[in-house]
Write a structure and sequence with these properties.
The complex is a heterodimer of chains A (190) and B (310). With 190 residues, chain A is α+β, with helices and mostly antiparallel strands. Chain A has 4 helices and 5 strands. Chain A has a 3-stranded mixed sheet, with no helix packed on it. Chain A has a two-stranded antiparallel ribbon with strand order 2-3. The longest helix of chain A has 38 residues. The termini of chain A are far apart. Chain B has 2 domains: 73 residues, no CATH class; 229 residues, Alpha-Beta Plaits. In chain B, a hairpin with a 5-residue loop joins strand 5 and strand 6. Chain B is globular, with a radius of gyration of 22 Å. Chains A and B meet through strand 4 of A and helix 5, strand 10 and helix 10 of B.
Chain lengths: 190, 310
């Protein structure tokens, strides 16, 4: 009886092994594909320019390394940029954690790699990885254009001010009219 | 009466259409009289009165109907209104997902929808109703408020749930329509033939989502507000006495565009796409997020989903 069972089980096990090998390969391939997708967002999608305050970019207009040596000491800014109040983990970071002291027109990642303001999502994604993942597939954030073709997406900073990222409250548009407020008019219900 | 015009420029003039003319003229006049008597007003043309259900029309008949409608709209609004009859795209089943963790209840969608879909402005018919609910209660219609109007949204301790037509796979509204004036298209959109609707409002009673709306009066649509890009089964201007509803902006989505509510949402809570496309945003939501259907227990099987994005 046991021999019979074994005989039955053997091919089943072999099949399982094969199946496992197959899934391992497909999983690896899948990973590759996923990585490729992460590196290059679909060609169809274009980014509008980051929402700079007027006249502020390029930063090197004022922050010229020749005329102004960068002061890398952490401090509260008193002369310039006093309009910026940091509500984005102020205890643990300040300007130069994201802005690069020596390449003012760029940002930098935690590992020092420079990123342009056009791809600032890489910087945000260092901490907010789950949001970045959803954003890449069009779930977090807004996409406009065509559901089956060219789309436009927004950068994180279009909706979230990087210095104070909480989504701002809005005034709601008017509510529907209550039934009792609807007046009878010519051609109306009688 | 249009086809009679050719024969009636001056009384007594010979008509080229032959000897049948007398009888035809009489029938035409009789039908027009019946139409006038039945509808209680003289606005309904004979052609409109005799028009069949949209699904029974041949291609040529559809074109004739559209030509007549465009002419009527031109007279009424002084604008060239284009009435399309774009069919459903093959291999497409539209699906919609709304992120309850992001919606802030600003009602931008409600008003963008009115603008896009030529609803009556006064009283304003709105196809989207945003419900304000308490976080402590969860999705509970007993404590839902649709007339909220604070200075700013979102209000502390509240969340917002916009409700519109759920484009059910088993639509109770279609089942109850006694004349077949509403049906489900191949891409999943439930549409209404406004010219075939008799205004009995059975569908409104059957819909568990309050998604259908009735034109109690002559719709008040100022000509400056008319969106001239329309679809026969979608946003073309309606008449008094017919039911209307969200059509996933059929005039836009069958051209590949997003719906007006998706385009306007400032929080990106609204997701739209093809349920049959594995790469689509909507499929990603269904496969990776916590999703629910509104009033699932009724087995209406909506193609509209709510999810939690965080």
């Amino acid at each position: 009886m046991t021999r019979l069972l074994r005989l039955c089980i053997l091919p089943w096990m072999a099949a399982c092994l094969l199946a496992f090998a197959a899934t391992a390969v497909t999983a690896e391939e899948h990973k590759k594909h996923a990585a490729a997708a992460v590196e290059a967002p679909k060609d169809l999608v274009q980014v509008p320019k980051p929402p700079f305050s007027e006249g502020i970019f390029p930063c090197s207009q004022c922050h010229d390394p020749k005329s102004m040596a960068p002061n890398t000491t952490r401090r509260v800014l008193k002369d310039m940029h006093t309009d910026i109040s940091l509500h984005h983990g102020p205890d643990t970071r300040w300007c130069l954690d994201c802005h690069d002291a020596y390449n003012r027109d760029n940002l930098h990642l935690a590992n020092g790699k420079l990123v342009s303001f056009n791809t600032s999502y890489q910087l945000c994604g260092q901490c907010h990885g789950d949001k970045l993942r959803d954003w890449r597939v069009g779930i977090h954030g807004k996409r406009t254009g065509s559901w089956n073709g060219a789309k436009q997406y927004l950068l994180c900073v279009h909706c979230h001010n990087p210095h104070s990222p909480h989504f701002k409250s809005l005034k709601p548009m008017p509510p529907p009219a209550r039934p009792e407020a609807i007046q009878l008019k010519n051609g109306g219900a009688k | 009466m249009m086809d009679q015009d050719a024969c009636q420029p001056s009384p007594g003039a010979p008509c080229p259409s032959g000897e049948n003319n007398g009888r035809r003229e009489f029938l035409g006049a009789a039908v027009a009289a019946v139409a006038t008597a039945l509808t209680g007003c003289g606005k309904l043309s004979k052609e409109e009165f005799l028009q069949h259900n949209f699904r029974e029309l041949s291609k040529e008949e559809v074109l004739t109907v559209i030509e007549r409608l465009e002419k009527e709209y031109k007279e009424k609004y002084g604008k060239d209104v284009k009435v399309a009859n774009t069919p459903a795209l093959p291999g497409v089943m539209f699906g919609y997902a709304l992120d309850l963790s992001r919606c802030i209840g600003c009602r931008r969608c409600v008003h963008a929808c009115v603008k896009e879909n030529n609803q009556s402005r006064d009283p304003e018919i709105q196809w989207i109703r945003v419900l304000e609910m308490e976080k402590e209660e969860g999705v509970n219609l007993q404590v839902a408020e649709q007339y909220y109007n604070p200075a700013e949204v979102p209000r502390e301790g509240h969340f917002y749930m916009p409700v519109q037509c759920q484009q059910c796979k088993k639509p109770p509204c279609v089942k109850v329509c006694p004349v077949g004036a509403t049906w489900k298209e191949k891409d999943g959109i439930v549409v209404v033939d406004y010219n075939w609707c008799i205004g009995c409002r059975y569908c409104m009673a059957a819909c568990p989502y309050g998604a259908r709306h009735f034109n109690w009066g002559e719709p008040n649509l100022p000509s400056k507000d008319v969106n001239t890009d329309t679809h026969y089964l979608g946003n073309r201007p309606r008449a008094k006495g017919v039911v209307e509803k969200c059509t996933f902006c059929v005039q836009r989505t069958r051209k590949g565009l997003y719906t007006a509510c998706v385009e306007v949402c400032p929080t990106g809570s609204r997701k739209f796409g093809n349920l049959l496309d594995k790469e689509s945003e909507i499929r990603y939501v269904l496969e990776n997020k916590r999703v629910f259907k509104f009033k699932e227990e009724l087995n209406t099987q909506p193609n509209f989903f709510y999810f939690y994005g965080v």
